[in-house]
Amino acid sequence: MTRLVVYLIGLLVSIVAMANSDPGGVAFTLSSGLAIGFAIPLLDTLIVHSQLLKIICYSVRTWRTRVRISASYLYRIHVDGEYLLVKGKRFDQYQPVGGVYKAHVSSSGDRKSMKILGDDLLLPDTVSEGDLRVRIPGKNLVAFVRWFESERGRETDGWREFYEELVATGLLSPKVFRFIKYDRIERIYRPMRYSPQAKSQELLIADILEIIPTSEQLEQLRQLKKSSDARILWATEDQIRRLGAANGSVAQTTQIAQTAEWTIDAGA
User: Fold this and answer.
1) Which of 33, 112, 238, 261 is most buried, taking the most CB atoms under 10 A from its CB?
2) What separation, in Å, do the N-terminal and C-terminal C-alpha atoms of the chain show?
3) How wide is the angle at C-alpha 53 spanned by C-alphas 46 and 9, nearest 5°?
4) For residues 232 and 36, what is the distance between their CA atoms, to the nearest angstrom?
5) Which residues of 27-54 are buried (b: 16+ CB within 10 A; e: fewer)?
6) With the CA atoms of 240, 255, 182 and 224 taken in that order, what torsion angle do they form, in degrees rounded to the nearest 10?
7) For residue 149, what are the CA distances in angstroms to 105, 135, 170, 207?
């Protein structure tokens, strides 16, 4: 952001110099050249830092109020044309494997300085302790995003929820899935919006992870597709985009979370 300020000041000074110079003179030629020289890296910097600039705008808009933030990781598990979803623990819907990141005790000082409060939509319990589902003053949004992006003092690995939802439940073998490899496809910052449930503005952050299975793991996932276990759903892209609604069906019996669609579109 320091470079952005330097480029912007340089561009403004160059424009002022151009305005006060003879269009046919040397000073005008030099200042116009400088203006172009500052404008190009300024544009490049604006593109690179566009997400942070949005966060700054959000911060200004909500300066005196609190914003609800949920920072999570979601898996895209795609096998033979279908996506693996699991039954939600808190809501009656199918959703991607994953959940919110957790903060470490070592970040307590940072969280205190940002005046972070716990989420008030869900009752706190031992499972939700440390969740990065929080409320924060709008004026501290930029500080939170910088802290989150630094990956210090918080969970950064996607193994915990994968293990809890698929391995510990017996859906997948702990021997075959004693470890996993995955790529982080994209980090999504959803546009800030008003949440009627939270009665505040809400910013959702999600890392989309795509599993890279071994041949043995892929075979077990294919075996899981043959299961009729109600805890899971193998859904097509069309089902997900319809959020569970079926063609020609009046009553919708299957609910799919909108976050499932995020996993499909990530990296596109």
Assistant:
1) 261
2) 28
3) 55
4) 57
5) ebeebbebbeebbeebeebeeeeeebee
6) -100
7) 17, 18, 34, 11
Burial zone of 248 (CB within 10 Å; 0-12 exposed, 13-18 middle, 19+ buried): exposed
The H or E element that residue 79 is part of is strand 78-79
CA distance 205 to 229: 30
**Cβ(187)–Cβ(206) below 8 Å:** yes
Report the pLDDT value the prediction gives residue 7, as an integer from 0 to 100: 63
**Residue 197 above 70 pLDDT?**
yes
For tokens 């589902």, the residue is: 133
Q: How far apart are CA 206 and CA 132, in angstroms?
A: 11
> Phi/psi at 218 (nearest 5 deg)?
-65, -40
Contacts of 138 (CB under 8 A, 6+ apart): 58, 59, 60, 61, 62, 63, 64, 65, 66, 67, 201
Query: Are the C-beta atoms of 169 and 231 separated by less than 8 Å?
Result: yes
What span, in angstroms and rounded, lies between the C-alpha atoms of 87 and 259?
13
- Residue 217's pLDDT band (cuts 50, 70, 90): very high
Whole-angstrom distance, CA of residue 89 vs CA of residue 178: 23
CA 111, CA 131: separation in Å to the nearest integer? 12
**Which stretch of DSSP H or E encloses residue 252?**
none
